[in-house]
Amino acid sequence: METASEPLVSNLNTKPKGGLRTMPFIIANEAFERVASFGLSSNMILYLKTEYNMETARATNLLLIWSAATNILPVIGAIVADSYVGRYPMIGFGSIASLLGMVLLWGEPSYLSTKLRMGIGLLFSITSMVSWAIVESIRKQLAIKEGFSDNPTGVVDMSVMWLLPHLMMDGLAEAFYTVAQNEFFYCEFPKSMSSISSSLNGVGMSVANLVASAILNGVDYVSKLGGKESWVSNNINKGHYDYYFWFLAGLCSANFLYYLFCSKAYGPCKSEVNNVYTEK
């Protein structure tokens, strides 16, 4: 007697999972993460000073440590995820760790001035882009050498640790500049405008993203004139992303020089003036 073997549940949906259907969840996740991150960094100094009676230096240093840790830990989490625990358990653990990082903050006071820390952050942003440009140039040479010129998805024999200097510089840039900028707005604005001052960083980030989009479109348009391959081509092995990163490093350098001019024109901050009077 022959018996037919049939699945208990027929698989009527043969379409692969993922794709555009997952985009709303990814966008929502990133949006909430950014709201939490920028909302915390913009208001935490005010909260620590008013609720915990912390000095500005100590509160700022706590945020520096938190920002540096949250920017460097993802690369460690990526290595652990790919090597040991898998992606999804690591995402769950990372979400919990991120929440704890927003609650548990620590360190010693910093005595670097606000404008000095912003300048240091801008210098780290320059070195971050330089590092990225160098690594991309090396990656492209390896890709061509290994025969991936026409295969943008080909995986080159190159360790992910090459990205570590860029990620470290990027984290230090945000730790120094973003926190110091929030402190600058809060300390320099009148107390009656504390809510406005805490939101200016978000406004700056919005404008920066729009400018970044315009720069990318401009580079794409100009670099492919005359039928040339765009610097930001879909095929990263035929494009020149290293040139693009060098261009961004140049813009960061010009921005640093402009910052030095504005810093000198602005004069001393209120906290610096108060420290002079206190010492006298």
UniProtKB/TrEMBL annotation:
Alphabetized GO MF terms: transmembrane transporter activity
Keywords, sorted A to Z: Membrane, Transmembrane, Transmembrane helix
Gene Ontology CC terms, in alphabetical order: membrane
Domain of life of the organism encoding this protein: Eukaryota
Keyword Membrane in annotation: yes
Subcellular location, record wording: Membrane
Designated name of the protein: Uncharacterized protein
Membrane topology: Multi-pass membrane protein
Segments traversing the membrane: 63-81, 88-106, 118-135, 200-223, 243-261
PANTHER family assigned to the protein according to its UniProt record, in alphabetical order: OLIGOPEPTIDE TRANSPORTER-RELATED (PTHR11654)
Family listed: Belongs to the major facilitator superfamily. Proton-dependent oligopeptide transporter (POT/PTR) (TC 2.A.17) family.
Pfam families with a match to the protein in the record: PTR2 (PF00854)
Record carries keyword Cell inner membrane: no
Cited Gene3D superfamilies: MFS general substrate transporter like domains
